[in-house]
Design goal:
Blueprint lengths: L1 E4 L3 E6 L5 H12 L4 E18 L4 E7 L3 E13 L2 E11 L5 E21 L5 E5 L4 E5 L1
Antiparallel strand pairs: 1-2, 2-7, 3-4, 3-5, 3-7, 5-6, 6-7, 8-9
Length: about 140
């Protein structure tokens, strides 16, 4: 992984075999990013995506293992209990142009991933909403 800090923006490149969520978490830790937006593209060959069921307050995750293009990676950076909190969603397309998506739990890069982080000066925390069952932004 390599990255370059442009002040209010950070450009990250992940290489084959690297995991996207862990890599972005490392960049946030190293640069002390507490708040921001994430967007990216790339290629992966393994991804775990999830869907939250509000009725049961449970996540259902599926691991996909084949070649995919990341047609969209989007999300945000905040903090929870002082730790980096990445909330990422992804859309993946296979060779037949079928799309799969959801909350991104993990993804392993097969070729490259190019990810921009828009850094915001400030900090927003999160806390668990017992009513909804999710870690919500706490202003």
């Amino acid at each position: 992984m390599e990255y370059k800090d442009y002040g209010s923006k950070v450009l990250v490149r992940l290489d084959p075999g690297e995991e996207i969520v862990a890599g972005l978490n490392d960049v946030c830790e190293k640069l002390d990013i507490k708040l921001g937006c994430v967007s990216g593209i790339g290629a992966v060959n393994q991804a775990t995506v999830g869907l939250f069921n509000p009725a049961t307050k449970e996540y259902f995750s599926t691991t996909l293992e084949k070649d995919f293009e990341i047609t969209n990676l989007t999300g945000n950076v905040s903090r929870m209990n002082g730790e980096v909190y990445l909330h990422l969603h992804v859309t993946l397309a296979d060779v037949e142009h079928n799309a799969f998506g959801g909350h991104l739990n993990s993804a392993v890069v097969s070729a490259t991933a190019e990810i921009w982080m828009d850094v915001v000066v400030g900090e927003v925390d999160r806390e668990l909403s017992k009513k909804i069952g999710l870690n919500l932004l706490k202003f």
